[in-house]
Amino acid sequence: MKELFSPNGRPPRTTFALMIAAQGALLLLLWLLYPLRLFPSLGDVLRSLADMVTTQGLIQELWASMSTALQALGAATVVALLISYLTALPFFRPLAYAASKMRYLTLTGLTFFMALMVSSGHEVKLSVLIFATTVYLVTGMTSVILTTTQQEMDHARTLGLGEWRSFCEVVVLGKLDEMLEVVRQNFAIIWTMITLVETLYQSEGGIGLLLYKQNRYLHLDGVVAIQLVILAAGAAQDYLFGLLRRVFFPYSELAAVR
Fold first, then answer.
1. Which listed residue, of 59, 180, 216, 219, carries a Cα 20 to 30 Å from 162's Cα?
2. What is the C-alpha separation between 83 and 137, in angstroms, rounded?
3. Is residue 136 part of a domain?
């Protein structure tokens, strides 16, 4: 028990899991017994959730949004990796710099131009999500590349590797685990954007459109229920990315603070 209140404590996993379960149960109990006046009760949220699952296709809408999000993430990751790795060549460094600064652009004005460049609502949604995700991924990935030290590169050169081979071994292969972590951290951006694009282009539905309808008609219990579903889906994806990192790059945890 003492480890739970010690700086950098390392409580046993069982104790830590019980602590999380107790805190979650306490929050649910407070929500059940002492609901806020402007906040729907736990019972109302659960009833609304059951209704949306059975009559409004919540699971299908979630899957539609999930599919779009994964497509956008895959394309954005490829583009961002390409731009980031090209920073090895000084000629392409302004491209990465410009891409990272584009994260300050608002998407409201960009959707019109993207609609002119593609032919369908689905492609517009993907274009918006890919753009929004790429500019953040490039920022994180170039930061990872910049952490490469001269000592690491010199060590590769002393092994007889050329410049390109040293770059591939030290930066590309050596930092794949950190690139995966950047992708994991920025996946949430897609979920914050997908409600916007699904509201603008409603032909394919999605959980964002369902959320918009619940919010439009002031069904606050439905809004909270959908938000909790999105939170649970995001937490599950976050855990999956962390699991993939531990499985494929077990050495990544060696330098972690214990």
1. 180
2. 10
3. yes
